[in-house]
Design goal:
Layout lengths: L2 E3 L10 H10 L7 E4 L16 E5 L2 E7 L3 E5 L2 E5 L5 E4 L3 H18 L9 E7 L16 E3 L7 H16 L7 H14 L4 H16 L3 H11 L2 E6 L5 H14 L4 E4 L3 H10 L6 E4 L1 H4 L10 E4 L9 H8 L3 H4 L2 E5 L21 E5 L7 H11 L15 E5 L2 H18 L5 E5 L5 H11 L3 E3 L8 E5 L8 E9 L5 H11 L2 E10 L3 H20 L7
Parallel strand pairs: 1-2, 4-8, 8-9, 10-14, 10-15, 11-12, 11-13, 13-14, 16-21, 17-19, 17-20, 18-19, 20-21
Antiparallel strand pairs: 2-3, 3-4, 5-6, 6-7
């Protein structure tokens, strides 16, 4: 499959015509690269923002303009009618747009030494929804793909377009692999792609929200079952369901206890429920000292795996009816057992428990889910259907070098994202001196969870951040993957990211990383062999 920059994914903001063309281009081989949806702002050659795709491969480079809906030209004015019936009129047609964008991009690449003057480049227009009637001198049929065209193998079509432009311009030399790489790298470096991350974060957030319909099934089951245990891997929405269920039970007139072992998570849950007076949010430790009712009409336990068999003590002492006859809900993921409870939770559930599973990852992109699985050799049972940016990896051997890399990443991220949407997660608490030095180096405010502020990037351990999430997460200080506890911490840290994940790996874990990659390959092979089961 062709390499897409940014990665090809379903987009609610993309027209059906663009989606069809990009899916068609995805049939290209891996020697091709497609740059699309770049979100370029304030660049010296403005027309680049108007090009829907730039396709580069062995025969040459093609700038492709895509127009969906009805396209017509009347008295020299182009009319574009979208799928909602809205009409836009322009003097400049798609052929002019594609030609202008190509000219600007070619000059840029030649000036920067990424494309020789004798190498082939050109442009084309795709109109998937219509057959363009009323041919005219500025309608170049040789590089037109419309509804009447034969949408054959894209490599055949692109080669034909390149041959046309090569004959016409007498610049027909093909591109070697290193030439393709130079073109892509020049455009990636010289175009300011950073604004697209902010746009991408919103887009992926919207897609992730759409995949949560299976959670409705759990909520419906909760209405009819007093004792419910819901298991799901990271990102399947357990905490959101715990909040929703606590609210529903309180709305029915009951007094509800929502509990979890993590104090930072309990604090966040308390803030989310501060408008719900019928719900108390307490950690088990806090229950021993806090004032409040002795018994509750219902108990909801989030991150129940951290309590191990101790969840029974909490429910027995706080829920009316106790474990056997009370109303309670457990939400758990054994892969996130960071406190070493190590208990088979299924064995602690009474026979009257309704058991359900969540199978759809509504937090992490597929790239993040795969990286978490590879690093930790944890088979993620939840499918991650949404694609996002590739995971960024940095290898380090010297702590000061790691912090320089970390500072550079932070600078790039806060240029395009509010600092509060970024988190740095570590295995052990970061010292105040290191945090201050890193803040100076990056020019970015850093704050712990207890002092979280809107103008600062949060710094926390994976354990502290459990149950929370951020748009962009930087996982630092990964120095070992040998022990199960190391891998569990890496699993939790990686799966806190929604859209962008950056991992800083010590050279000492390279062998472990490679072993994880081999393990993951075996998992994909086994899962793919099962009919209808996606790898992730």
């Amino acid at each position: 499959m062709a390499r897409f920059i940014p990665p090809l994914r379903v987009s609610s903001g993309r027209s059906p015509a663009e989606t069809r063309v990009l899916q068609w281009l995805s049939r290209l081989g891996d020697e091709w690269t497609v740059l699309h949806s770049l979100g370029v702002l304030n660049h010296s050659f403005k027309r680049w923002a108007e090009a829907d795709a730039l396709v580069v491969g062995p025969p040459g480079l093609v700038v492709l303009e895509v127009k969906g809906g009805r396209v017509a030209r009347r008295q020299g004015v182009w009319e574009f009618t979208d799928r909602f019936g809205r009409v836009t009129r322009k003097r400049e047609g798609p052929f002019d747009q594609a030609g202008g964008a190509h000219g600007a991009i070619r000059r840029h690449l030649v000036d920067h030494g990424a494309l020789r003057r004798d190498q082939c480049s050109g442009w084309a227009v795709a109109l998937p929804d219509v057959t363009l009637a009323g041919r005219a001198p500025d309608v170049l049929e040789e590089v037109l793909l419309d509804a009447s065209s034969e949408w054959s193998a894209p490599e055949v079509v692109l080669t034909r377009w390149c041959r046309h432009w090569g004959d016409r311009s007498r610049a027909a030399s093909p591109l070697a692999p290193e030439d393709v790489a130079a073109v892509v790298e020049t455009l990636r470096v010289d175009l300011d792609l950073r604004p697209s991350l902010s746009l991408l974060a919103d887009e992926v957030d919207e897609e992730l929200t759409r995949v949560t319909t299976e959670q409705e099934r759990v909520l419906r089951a909760a209405e009819d079952n007093p004792r419910l245990a819901v298991a799901g891997r990271a990102g399947t929405g357990k905490t959101m369901l715990a909040l929703a269920e606590a609210r529903r039970l309180a709305d029915e007139g009951g007094r509800v206890l929502l509990t979890c072992s993590s104090a930072p998570l309990a604090s966040r849950l308390g803030l989310a429920l501060q408008d719900a007076p019928g719900i108390d949010v307490r950690t088990p430790a806090h229950l021993l000292t806090a004032a409040g009712p002795d018994h509750y009409d219902a108990v909801v336990v989030d991150e129940a795996q951290d309590l191990g068999a101790g969840w029974q003590d909490v429910v027995d002492t706080r829920a009316r009816g106790g474990v056997e006859a009370g109303t309670w809900r457990l939400f758990l993921d054994p892969a996130q057992d960071l406190v070493g409870a190590g208990v088979d939770m299924a064995s602690t559930l009474p026979a009257s428990t309704t058991r359900m599973s969540l199978t759809l990852n509504c937090r992490n992109t597929r790239q993040i889910a795969v990286m978490a699985s590879m690093l930790t050799r944890t088979e993620l049972d939840a499918v991650a259907p949404v694609l996002g940016p590739e995971v960024v990896m940095h290898w380090w051997s010297d702590p000061s070098n790691q912090d320089r890399l970390l500072a550079a990443e932070l600078q790039d991220l806060v240029d395009v994202l509010p600092p509060a949407r970024v988190a740095v997660l570590t295995h052990r608490p970061m010292t105040a001196a290191r945090r201050a030095a890193l803040s100076r180096l990056a020019g970015v405010h850093l704050a712990g969870l207890e002092e979280r502020r809107t103008d600062a990037v949060v710094v926390a351990t994976a354990e502290e951040f459990k149950g929370l999430e951020a748009v962009a997460v930087l996982v630092a200080d990964v120095e070992s993957l040998d022990r199960a506890t190391d891998r569990r911490h890496a699993y939790v840290a990686c799966t806190r990211a929604r859209v962008r994940l950056t991992v800083f790996l010590h050279e000492a874990v390279r062998e472990g990383y490679q072993a994880g990659a081999a393990w993951f390959g075996g998992v994909v092979t086994r899962r793919s062999a099962r009919r209808g089961l996606q790898p992730y």
